[in-house]
């Protein structure tokens, strides 16, 4: 009850913060000016005139009048509150509560010693009500809805798409009345077909090239050969096809966010006044997702493990005890706690990308100067209105670009948190012997004996002599044993659910970051060679 009370308290606080943020956002929208009218005179000058833009501070009132501001702020506010609730509950589960329970651990051991219960179930799991997972699930839903709405823009007509990119008709040209080019829709559909084929190929290589555990997940979903019915709930082909369709949808949603990020990265690298440290951070921000992608590849992990084992027995480390300790620690960590390493590295990647969101948006705003530089190479004359319209078109899509950058990060973060909790993993490599035994193939062999043990216990526990009904101990014993049987049944289904979640969410986490990074590389290659 104490844990549930803490979760309810954090939930109420987060809901209160969201309510206040929504009220503040509505007041800001109602009090913001339109800002689309311009009363300056029109004058003309040669296009070859050099124009230098000056940086100006962008306030909240400036972006409040832009399209998609409400969607952007709601997604950020809700995801931040959900992450705070999740962080508080994780700290309480893993640090505070185990430390508090350590005081009466000896009494618990004595009480368990007095209560002798035989069970062939491999691992004792505690059924916990975790409200933070509800928050992360809702955040996942809002993120997917935002990505779908952003992708739907490219399937609308040009007039409808213009309303998203610009509120004023002054910001549109005569070509805005034509139909949308079919290449944008075709690109999304072609990418979806490519991701469908690629996901099918990756799923067929599970266990040989990638380490998802989908075969164990499917075996526990259908209860394997221990199911009473001969026909399974779902066939292996249908199971893979559903995952491939989900992967196809995720990849299609990442087409234009990835291409836009590739262009922004290219524009950022081209900026001349940049320090060496910032340039290194920009490069790392673009290529860092490759590390967690490689950690799910079996040949890579096997090669690293074998290399570390070879180094531990190498003669070159003779006389270097400190280096031997480090290599032994890394070898032990990599061989026994690979899942925790994947979680930590993936979390570090997504937090690193979120920390550079201001630099990314600033690089996008700086692209207005590049457009003006290309504009000055054209012949003829232009007006100040046309230059203002060119610069304003960049600023007007600021919320759109921000959503295209943070939405994949939020989607990956939510999937990662759900993968960690639903699969029974840990952020830090401790008590991993329990999880390692939980996911080993040998545990599946004890499931038939576990089911038969429940039936025998259910029969034996209720064959109690009820002749002496005045004995209250008999009734209390029946209640305790019935409660124990119920907990065994719940643990049994929880065991299956954790293995199913480990396979499915492991694939979704890896596929999300892989498809996003693949589209980023595509955007980089396209804009790199298209500008030449």
From TrEMBL:
Membrane-protein topology: Multi-pass membrane protein
Claim: Glycoprotein is one of the keywords in the record: yes
InterPro entries per the record?
Transmembrane_161A/B
Name any GO cellular component annotation: membrane
What does UniProt give as the signal peptide span?
A: 1-15
- Chief localization: membrane
Pfam families according to UniProt: Tmemb_161AB
Where does the chain cross the membrane?
A: 133-155, 185-205, 233-259, 280-298, 318-334, 341-361, 393-419, 493-513
Which keywords has UniProt assigned to this entry? Glycoprotein, Membrane, Signal, Transmembrane, Transmembrane helix
State the compartments where it is located: Membrane
The similarity comment for this entry is:
Belongs to the TMEM161 family.
- Give the matching PANTHER family: EMEI, RE42071P
Q: What is this protein called?
A: Transmembrane protein 161B
Q: Which organism is it from?
A: Schistosoma bovis (Blood fluke)
């Amino acid at each position: 009850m104490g844990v549930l009370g803490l979760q309810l308290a954090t939930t109420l606080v987060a809901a209160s913060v969201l309510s206040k943020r929504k009220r503040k956002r509505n007041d800001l929208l109602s009090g913001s000016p339109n800002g689309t009218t311009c009363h300056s005179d029109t004058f003309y000058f040669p296009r070859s005139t050099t124009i230098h833009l000056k940086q100006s501070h962008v306030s909240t009132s400036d972006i409040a009048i832009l399209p998609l501001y409400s969607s952007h702020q709601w997604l950020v506010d809700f995801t931040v509150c959900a992450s705070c609730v999740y962080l508080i509950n994780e700290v309480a589960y893993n640090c505070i509560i185990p430390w508090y329970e350590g005081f009466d651990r000896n009494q618990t051991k004595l009480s368990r010693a007095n209560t002798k219960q035989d069970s062939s179930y491999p691992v004792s799991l505690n059924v916990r009500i975790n409200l933070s997972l509800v928050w992360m699930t809702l955040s996942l839903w809002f993120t997917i809805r935002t990505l779908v709405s952003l992708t739907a823009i490219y399937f609308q007509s040009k007039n409808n798409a213009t309303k998203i990119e610009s509120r004023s008709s002054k910001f549109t040209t005569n070509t805005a009345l034509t139909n949308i080019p079919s290449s944008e829709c075709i690109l999304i559909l072609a990418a979806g077909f490519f991701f469908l084929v690629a996901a099918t190929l990756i799923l067929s290589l599970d266990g040989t090239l990638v380490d998802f555990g989908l075969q164990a997940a499917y075996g526990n979903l259908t209860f394997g050969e221990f199911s009473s019915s001969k026909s399974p709930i779902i066939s292996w082909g249908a199971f893979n096809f559903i995952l491939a369709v989900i992967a196809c949808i995720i990849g299609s949603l990442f087409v234009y966010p990835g291409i836009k990020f590739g262009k922004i990265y290219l524009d950022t690298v081209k900026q001349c006044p940049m320090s060496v440290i910032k340039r290194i951070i920009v490069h790392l921000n673009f290529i860092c997702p490759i590390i967690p992608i490689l950690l799910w590849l079996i040949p890579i992990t096997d090669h690293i493990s074998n290399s570390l084992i070879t180094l531990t027995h190498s003669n070159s480390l003779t006389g270097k005890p400190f280096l031997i300790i480090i290599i032994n620690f890394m070898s032990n960590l990599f061989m026994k706690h690979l899942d925790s390493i994947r979680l930590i590295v993936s979390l570090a990647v997504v937090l690193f990308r979120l920390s550079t969101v201001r630099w990314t948006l600033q690089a996008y705003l700086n692209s207005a100067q590049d457009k003006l530089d290309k504009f000055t190479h054209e012949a003829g004359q232009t007006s100040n209105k046309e230059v203002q319209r060119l610069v304003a078109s960049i600023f007007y899509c600021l919320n759109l670009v921000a959503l295209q950058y943070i939405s994949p990060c939020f989607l990956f973060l939510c999937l990662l948190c759900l993968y960690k909790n639903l699969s029974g993993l840990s952020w830090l490599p401790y008590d991993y012997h329990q999880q390692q035994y939980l996911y080993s193939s040998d545990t599946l062999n004890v499931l038939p004996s576990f089911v038969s043990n429940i039936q025998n216990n259910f029969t034996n526990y209720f064959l109690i002599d009820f002749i002496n009904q005045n004995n209250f101990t008999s009734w209390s014993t029946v209640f305790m044993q019935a409660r124990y049987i119920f907990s065994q049944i719940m643990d049994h289904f929880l065991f299956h659910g954790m293995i199913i979640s480990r396979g499915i969410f492991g694939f979704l986490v890896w596929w999300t970051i892989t498809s996003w990074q693949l589209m980023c590389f595509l955007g980089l290659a396209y804009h790199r060679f298209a500008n030449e």
